[in-house]
Each structure stands twice: as structure tokens, then as C-alpha cells.
Amino acid sequence: MRYLPEPSFSHDAIRKIGVLLVNLGTPDEPSAPAVRRYLKQFLSDPRVVEIPRIIWWMILNGIILNTRPKKSAAKYAKIWTRDGAPLLVHTRRLGQLLQGYLGEARKTAPLLVRVGMRYGNPSIPSAIAELKAQHCDRILVLPLYPQYAGSTTASSFEAVAQAISSYRNVPGLRTIRHYHDHPAYIGALANSVRTYWARHGKPDKLLMSFHGVPQFTLEQGDPYHCECQKTGRLLGEALGLTKEQYVISFQSLFGRAEWIKPYTEPTLKELAKKGAERVDVICPGFPVDCLETLEEIAIEGKATFLSAGGKDFNYIPCLNEDDMWVKALTNIALENLQGWIDETGDRALMQDDAMATMTRATTMGASQ
Question: Are strands 278-282 and 16-26 parallel, antiparallel or unpaired?
Fold first, then answer.
């Protein structure tokens, strides 16, 4: 096996710790060719579509990739910004803020944050290459999936493992499995809702819409459905809501198989028909806004509710770069960096130690 080349080595280099902020990804542009490339990578992942490969290959390449890209590109075009795809824009900003907050919290710890997408760019392998080039010998993987799912969290972990296996000198690795019930995450969600209601008043119902997954994944032991339910319950409790004041649903259905219920679109229709005049929707499974929140919920969901007789529909934005959320993410990262950052000390002492290492190495014949 041929390994990827290692970055230039020097005995006096200070070893750093990398934080890899992972998100799902987005097409490079809102065009049919770009969406086709993205969908091919995304839907070719056996963690995403668990259908026998030969059968799925024919469906994917014979039907889906010939019909869906143009339609999806039109949807992306509705939400595309001057700076690019909202998911990528917000994830990058979040990474920059996380870098700053971690630096303030641990001034002496050499921490570097990089963003990697499971599908599309910047890729997970490219982010790991950047971290290795900066002499990171340990990496914490922090996915922007609060609730664990095999199709998102596990798939991203596999991609990270595959990427680091391409190197001879493999970095130490830690992964954050989930934080669906972390008090700081729930607190940030609740604060965002309270802030919105302070400006706009309260609705008849709060709908918490999560991304859906096939029903059989729950039956096979995937904990995603349970973790979404717990997030919803904790958020409701933090807001002081009764069970009658909020609803949990699941969106983004794909294919003909049964997915976990209740579905978001029928739920919106039912709420309108039962007399709810105002519905507010929040998407707690998406830390940053993306196609599924801005187009599927804020545009399509609104049209669905109003056409069914509802009068007022409000989408509460994702946490994005909310200060309380960045602090929560910083706390989550620091909790999972314990032991690693505790080993680091003053930068001056670290530099002295690195120079001493260089001296010993050159004495033994090392060239650098």
C-alpha cells in the first residue's frame, strides 16, 4: 500500500491538537451539474441508502441522477447567498468563532479548528491534510449532528477513519458521538426560541421538525428517533411548555419506504385544519441553516400551512453563529479534550522543550 506523503518534519516543531468540525455538505453551486456530482457522492454512501448495491446503482444512475439534479438545483437557487451555500457559510463562520472561543478558553493550548464536509467541499480528507500540515498529532472530531444517526454521524466517522488510514503517521483520534441532551445545547435552543417570542409573541403551537430516517433503521437499533424525542422533550421543558403546546415531527422523506413519523408536511396540514392559526417551526437537528430549513420548511412548509387554512407561519432560524450556541459548542469541545489539553502548558515552555528535543536529535545524528 502507498501512503500519502507526510508533511515536512522537524524535531523542534510544537505538536498541536486539531478540532475537525464536520457537517453534511452542499453542492459547489446551484446548478444541475454541481448538484448531480453532490447527489452521486451522497446517495452512493451505503450508510445513507441501505439497498443492495446493484439494484440501487441502477436506480441511482438510471433514474435519480437524470431527473432530480435540475429540480434540486432550482431549490438551492432560492436560498443561495452572495457568499455561497448557507450551510457552508454558517459552518465556516462557526468554525472561526469556535477557534476564537477555544483560544480564549485555553490560551496556552495549541488548538486548531478546521471544517470538513462529509460530501462535497471542503472535504474531510482535505481538512485532515491541513491539520496534519500544521503538526496536529491528535484530532477531535466534532460533528454538527446533535443527534446520532448511522447515516450521518457514523458515516462521517467512517470517512474520517478512511482519511487518516491513508497516512503512515496516523494522528490520535477522538470522536463526539452526540450532544442531543447536553444542557448547554438545550439552553442555546431554548434561548433562541425565547428571544424570537420576545419579539414576535407566542404561537398556538411550536413544531419541532427533525430530519427523517427510514423506519427500519429504528427497528434495527439506530437511536436517532429516541434522541430526537429527548431533545424535543427537554426543549419543551426548558421553555415551560405543556405536551399540548408543542409537536415533534420528521421531514425530508426520500423514496417509497416508510420513514419515522409523524411527517412534517401532514402535521402542518392537520394543525391548520384543527384550528391552529399560528405555528412556529424550529429545526433542532440542524445547528446551521441549510436547504432543509430555509427552503423545505421556511418556504414549502409555510405554503403548506397557509394553503391548509393556517393564518400565520413563522420559521425560527437555526442557531448558526448565536453567541450562546458558540459557547455551548466550545464547552462540548473542551469536555471532550480533557486529558489532551491538560497535558499542554505554557507556550514558552513548550518551545523550550521542542528546542531541547531538536538538540538531542541532532546530537544523535538527525538532520532536522
Answer: unpaired
Grid cell 510544537 is found at: 14
Q: Which residues of 317-350 are buried (b: 16+ CB within 10 A; e: fewer)?
A: bbbbebebbbbbbbbbbbebbeebbeebeeeeeb
Question: If you write DSSP's letter for every residue of 83-127 in order, what string do you get?
Answer: TB-HHHHHHHHHHHHHHHHHHHHTTTS-EEEEEEEEEESSBHHHH
State the Cα–Cα distance between residues 160 and 329, nearest whole angstrom: 20
Measured distance CA(247)–CA(1) in Å, rounded: 52
pLDDT digits (tens, 9 = 90+) for 2-50: 898 888 877 767 899 999 999 999 999 999 999 999 999 999 999 999 9
**Residue 238: all three cell numbers together:** 426548558
Predicted TM-score of the model (pTM): 0.91
Run of H or E residues at 76: helix 65-79
Tracing cell 478546521 back to the chain, one arrives at: 114
